[in-house]
């Protein structure tokens, strides 16, 4: 009889209860993994908790000790913390990517703080099995920050609304997520709030040959529109097609040298994250990569036009809503 699994499950259950006691909603991740124990939106059976429409782990995450005790009593689930409902923003500093001159996320974050002249205060911090770290900050009141991918720097992601972080106590075959600093989360410094929402030059789809007066302004307005379309596509109404089209269009502008590929990727991933369907993210990110590459190999032709100006369309992001807490069982 395996006597290890119950002990691991009990330890993980205690961690889940402690985090929930801080007011941070948690949700089970598959044992030994970092993906939710839940179906993707495109595989939703429309039954049980999803009888009224697909529900995401972010919507079902809970701080209820009875539900948590019952769930972790059944299996040694790893733990996800959902920072959006918790009023947090988690900065995910990855190890350095392979290649010459690359920088790990923690070093890049320190360099960014020095560049912007802002503080980087001690806060609740977790180390990851591969040597990264997660820094937990309180989001400023009234500030709903979304998740981003590579927006602050190549090896830095952020987890806000639409994302989650693997919590301390969780274990994988390659190691554990361990608490490095138990300092209560401090408020996200203003310079990091600003850096998290800054946007670079980006672009949009259209005719093969486009005349514009100011390519940079054209690109900035266009990417907002493409990502707006992706973020606003309703569930089960062509999300995969909308994402593929937008990524292909932005890839064409990457090929035309009016859009940086890392910016296009980060903006598209942020739009996907806003769907709040964490289980579908690996598939959606793969669509982005494939379509970006295809568009890059068929670049748009951008020509100057001295008399044409490009307008911009302002839009207001929908405020995230908190759904009634439910749990995983049907």
Describe this structure in words.
The protein has 330 residues and is an alpha+beta fold. The chain folds into 2 domains: 4-197, no CATH class; 209-304, no CATH class. The protein has 10 helices and 14 strands. It has helices spanning 4-21, 57-60, 65-74, 83-86, 105-116, 190-197, 215-232, 239-255, 261-273, 281-296, and strands spanning 26-29, 78-81, 88-93, 124-127, 133-138, 148-153, 156-159, 165-166, 171-172, 175-176, 178-181, 186-187, 209-212, 301-304. Strands 3, 4, 5, 6, 7, 11 and 12 form a 7-stranded mixed sheet that branches. A 3-stranded antiparallel sheet has the order 1-2-8. Strand 4 (124-127) and strand 5 (133-138) form a beta hairpin. The longest helix is centred in the N-terminal third of the chain and has 18 residues, at 4-21. The relative contact order is 0.15. Mean pLDDT is 81; it is low at 199-209, 211-215 and 306-326.
What's the shape?
Answer: globular
Instruction: Determine the number of helices (DSSP H or I, runs of at least 4 residues).
Output: 10
Q: What distance separates the N and C termini?
A: 29 Å
Largest sheet: 7 strands, mixed
Query: What fraction of residues sit in β-strands?
Result: 15-25%
Mean pLDDT over the residues: 81
Helix content range of the residues, please?
A: 25-40%
Write a brief caption for the model.
The chain has 330 residues and is α+β, with helices and mostly antiparallel strands. It is 36% helix and 16% strand.
């Amino acid at each position: 009889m395996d006597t290890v699994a119950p002990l691991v499950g009990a330890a993980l259950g205690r961690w889940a209860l402690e985090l929930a006691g801080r007011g941070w909603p948690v949700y089970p991740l598959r044992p030994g993994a970092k993906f939710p124990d839940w179906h993707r939106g495109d595989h939703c059976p429309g039954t049980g908790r999803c009888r009224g429409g697909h529900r995401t782990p972010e919507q079902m995450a809970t701080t209820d000790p009875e539900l948590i005790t019952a769930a972790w009593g059944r299996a040694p689930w790893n733990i996800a913390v959902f920072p959006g409902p918790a009023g947090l923003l988690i900065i995910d500093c990855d190890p350095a990517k392979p290649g010459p001159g690359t920088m790990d996320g923690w070093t890049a974050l320190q360099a960014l703080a020095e560049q912007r002249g802002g503080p980087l205060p001690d806060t609740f911090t977790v180390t990851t099995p591969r040597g990264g770290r997660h820094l937990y900050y309180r989001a400023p009141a009234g500030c709903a920050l979304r998740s981003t991918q590579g927006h602050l720097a190549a090896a830095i992601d952020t987890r806000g609304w639409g994302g989650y972080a693997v919590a301390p106590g969780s274990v994988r075959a390659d190691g554990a997520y361990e608490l490095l600093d138990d300092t209560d989360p401090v408020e996200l410094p203003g310079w990091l709030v600003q850096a998290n929402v800054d946007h670079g030059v980006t672009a949009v789809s259209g005719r093969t040959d486009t005349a514009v007066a100011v390519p940079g302004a054209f690109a900035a307005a266009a990417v907002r529109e493409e990502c707006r379309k992706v973020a606003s596509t309703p569930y089960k109404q062509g999300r995969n097609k909308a994402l593929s089209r937008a990524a292909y269009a932005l890839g064409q502008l990457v090929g035309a040298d009016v859009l940086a590929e890392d910016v296009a990727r980060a903006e598209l991933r942020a739009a996907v994250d806003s769907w709040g369907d964490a289980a579908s993210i690996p598939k959606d990110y793969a669509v982005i990569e494939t379509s970006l590459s295809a568009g890059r190999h068929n670049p748009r032709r951008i020509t100057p036009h001295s008399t044409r100006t490009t307008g911009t369309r302002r839009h207001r992001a929908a405020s995230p809503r908190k759904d009634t807490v439910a749990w995983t069982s049907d």
